[in-house]
């Protein structure tokens, strides 16, 4: 049985990116997995009026143009569904993730596709699966009062049905912080 990992990266940096390097390290520990990479730093369009109109149109009534508008969103959702495991690597930028992460969230939160409304509130439609979120930061430690990323990311995955979420942080950019994160990731990978 193949094990599909969806790897999502968000740092604007490639050279010297702590979050991407920790992601490499983590995924290297799963040599038998098939990895699909979605690099948010390459750009994710923001949703717009056309996009919202298309999602509010029942699938069978969508025009060719509306289907085209939703093509990337459909692809991003398909990646989530196909994954047995998700690895998200991101830096903290200005107290949250880079804007491309929010653009990705807006693309994948789809009523009737990744969640549905019920009489008792919204229900996630995806199968639960492990999500490991690796966060690099400067002065802001994960879970500190000015970390506005962690709770949001956890809620987004919970909202679409994924509750098995683990966050690992490396703050300060020091060797000690990176080593601690690596040790934590090795335990998770085992
Ligand atoms: C535009 C920008 C904004 C940043 N904002 C924050 C921040 O709000 N809090 C923080 O702790 N670090 C912040 N940092 C530092 C980065 O989170 C840190 O350098 C991290 O290692 C970057 O991830 P990377 O090494 O994977 O590229 C910021 C860095 C950049 C370039």
Secondary structure topology:
Blueprint: E1 4-9, H1 18-28, E2 34-39, H2 49-56, H3 64-69, H4 71-82, E3 85-91, H5 99-108, E4 115-118, E5 121-124, E6 131-137, H6 150-159, E7 165-171, H7 175-189
Parallel strand pairs: 1-2, 1-3, 3-6, 6-7
Antiparallel strand pairs: 4-5
Enzyme class: oxidoreductase
Function: Also exhibits azoreductase activity. Catalyzes the reductive cleavage of the azo bond in aromatic azo compounds to the corresponding amines. Quinone reductase that provides resistance to thiol-specific stress caused by electrophilic quinones.
Protein name: FMN dependent NADH:quinone oxidoreductase
**Distance N to C terminus:** 18 Å
Q: What fold name stands as the CATH topology?
A: Rossmann fold
Shape: globular
CATH classification, class level: Alpha Beta
Spatial arrangement of strands, main beta sheet: 2-1-3-6-7
Describe this structure in words.
The chain has 190 residues and is an alpha/beta fold. The protein has a single domain (4-189), classed as Flavodoxin domain (Rossmann fold). It is 38% helix and 22% strand. The chain contains seven helices and seven strands. The protein has helices spanning 18-28, 49-56, 64-69, 71-82, 99-108, 150-159, 175-189, and strands spanning 4-9, 34-39, 85-91, 115-118, 121-124, 131-137, 165-171. It has a five-stranded parallel sheet, with helices on both faces. Strands 4-5 form a two-stranded antiparallel ribbon. Strand 6 (131-137), helix 6 and strand 7 form a beta-alpha-beta unit. Helix 1 packs parallel to helix 7 (175-189). The chain is globular and about 55 Å long. It starts with a strand and ends with a helix. The model has no long low-confidence stretch (mean pLDDT 97). Flavin mononucleotide binds at residues 11, 13, 17-20, 91-95, 136-140, 173. Flavin mononucleotide (FMN) is lined by residues 11, 13, 17-20, 91-95, 136-140, 173.
């Amino acid at each position: 049985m193949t094990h599909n990992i969806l790897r999502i990266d968000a740092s604007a940096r490639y050279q010297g990116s702590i979050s991407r390097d920790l992601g490499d390290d983590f995924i290297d520990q799963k040599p038998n997995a098939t990895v699909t990479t979605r690099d948010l730093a390459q750009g994710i369009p923001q949703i717009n009026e056309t996009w919202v109109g298309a999602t509010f149109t029942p699938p069978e009534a969508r025009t060719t143009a509306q289907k085209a508008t939703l093509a990337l969103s459909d692809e991003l959702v398909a990646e989530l569904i196909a994954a047995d495991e998700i690895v998200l690597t991101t830096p903290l930028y200005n107290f949250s993730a880079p804007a491309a992460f929010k653009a990705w969230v807006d693309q994948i939160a789809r009523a009737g596709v990744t969640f549905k409304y019920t009489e008792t509130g919204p229900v996630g439609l995806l199968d639960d699966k492990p999500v490991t979120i690796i966060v690099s930061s400067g002065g802001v430690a994960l879970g500190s009062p000015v970390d506005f990323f962690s709770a949001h990311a956890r809620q987004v995955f919970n909202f679409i049905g994924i509750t098995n979420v683990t966050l690992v942080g490396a703050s300060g950019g020091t060797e000690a912080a990176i080593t601690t994160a690596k040790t934590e990731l090795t335990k998770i990978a085992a």
